[in-house]
Amino acid sequence: GAVVSQHPSRVICKSGTSVKIECRSLDFQATTMFWYRQFPKQSLMLMATSNEGSKATYEQGVEKDKFLINHASLTLSTLTVTSAHPEDSSFYICSARSTSGGGDTQYFGPGTRLTVL
Amino acid sequence: ILNVEQSPQSLHVQEGDSTNFTCSFPSSNFYALHWYRWETAKSPEALFVMTLNGDEKKKGRISATLNTKEGYSYLYIKGSQPEDSATYLCAFMQGSSNTGKLIFGQGTTLQVKP
């Protein structure tokens, strides 16, 4: 089946530093990947759509200069949280879209728990 | 604002019980409804992608139905087992432009006691 990895699984950083999270589709190519954020006891909230070879599309209220997305290849998208602050502490999870075989499914990574001190 | 609601929020059942949960979504401009199973510390696992009104899909002991006119989907688990313990998420995909964007419900957390 389709596998998506995410790295790191957990990161603790100091306020003001930047953190990069990688999302890789291991056995399929994905022109589109998505980044979500989950606050405690809430649903997965879409942050942005990452498009290979073009700029990401951000959802309303998500600061593009704060959350930098790069989708440089068909198997890798990165999310960089710049100048992280405690309020950025959250669970971040990515998905890669597969439309092979006439289907349309998103396959998820295991997520990254970010704690900003 | 598009709203996807799941109920109940959590559920505790005994091994062998059958159970079902509900996902409510906007009935207008429907494209697809996804169900995922999410175990702790693992990736959400895609269960079903449903697109047609009246769709009924099955995977082992798990099945799902879809009513796009009234905006709901049911997920059924027959003869629950402890390994079915997980959070079940539904996600709504809207529109004809097919951006692929999913709007998630909060999930139903199922605990199956041996």
From the spread of the alpha carbons, the general shape of chain A counts as globular
Structural class of chain B, by secondary structure, is mainly beta
- What structural class results from the helix and strand content of chain A? mainly beta
Strand portion of chain B, in percent? over 45%
Order of secondary-structure elements of chain B: EEEEEEEEEEE
Q: Report low-confidence residues of chain A grouped into runs of 5 or more.
A: none
Total helix count of chain A?
0
**How many angstroms does the end-to-end distance of chain A come to?**
37 Å
Helical proportion of chain B, percent range? under 10%
Hey, which two chains have the biggest interface?
Answer: A-B, 23 and 23 residues
Distance between the termini of chain B: 41 Å
Strand content of chain A is over 45%
Task: Bin the helical content of chain A.
Answer: under 10%
Question: Could you give a short description of this structure?
Answer:
By secondary structure, chain A is mainly β.
Could you characterize the architecture of this molecule?
With 117 residues, chain A is mostly beta strands. In chain A, 0% of the residues lie in helices and 53% in strands. In chain A, the strands form two sheets. In chain A, strands 2, 4, 5, 6, 9, 10 and 11 form a seven-stranded mixed β-sheet that branches. In chain A, a hairpin with a 2-residue loop joins strand 7 and strand 8. In chain B, strands 2, 4, 5, 9, 10 and 11 form a six-stranded mixed β-sheet that branches. By secondary structure, chain B is mainly beta. In chain B, 0% of the residues lie in helices and 54% in strands. Chain B is globular, with a radius of gyration of 14 Å. Chain B contains no helices and eleven strands.
